[in-house]
Design brief:
The longest helix is centred in the N-terminal third of the chain and has 21 residues. The protein contains six helices and six strands. Helix content is about 35%, strand content about 35%.
């Protein structure tokens, strides 16, 4: 019987603790900054589009962390800000180069230090084989990390083309 009373008392204590009417803890700073962080990332991407229009390789690379990775169809992954800048420097030499992108989703982690965007892009550049401008379009996902100064920089940027790949020359001849 003592055991039954002990179990009943414990159940009442835990049950009453669950009914505590104390206010919920205040939202932490990262939660209250969610909307501001989302807007900061949108502003970052707006600037990034302007930097593409200006064909400024240094500013374009500046959107990445030192350890970032950029993955573009048909190319080896570019690992590190220096590698990204080197390859982007070559890309911006193309007079036909035009890139624009627009996020359809921006989400910031509840921790407030990580975020991602996903969206669509359009890119025109000179085909190295035909020497004529070609247009590509597709989707992207960019992962961001908040920097100590409050800015957001890309740590992983992955692009997926929606344009069907051309079959290899050997497959065309069959």
């Amino acid at each position: 019987m003592n055991r039954t009373l002990t179990l009943c008392a414990a159940a009442m204590i835990f049950g009453l603790a669950g009914c505590n009417n104390a206010p919920a803890p205040a939202a932490n700073a990262s939660t209250s900054n969610h909307d501001a962080d989302v807007q900061a990332i949108k502003d970052t991407e707006r600037q990034w589009n302007q930097d593409f229009a200006a064909k400024d390789a240094a500013k374009l690379a500046g959107h990445y962390t030192d350890d970032a990775v950029l993955m573009i169809p048909g190319m080896d992954a570019m690992v590190g800000k220096d590698a990204i800048q080197k390859d982007v420097q070559e890309m911006v030499k193309d007079p036909a180069l035009s890139i624009s992108f627009q996020s359809s989703k921006v989400d910031v982690a509840s921790s407030g230090d990580l975020a991602y965007t996903r969206g669509t892009y359009t890119m025109t550049m000179t085909d190295p084989k035909t020497k004529k401008p070609v247009t590509d379009h597709g989707s992207y996902v960019t992962d961001y990390r908040k920097q100590p100064d409050g800015s957001w920089k890309a740590v992983a940027d992955i692009v997926t083309s929606e344009v069907p790949m051309e079959p290899p020359a050997s497959a065309k001849k069959k």
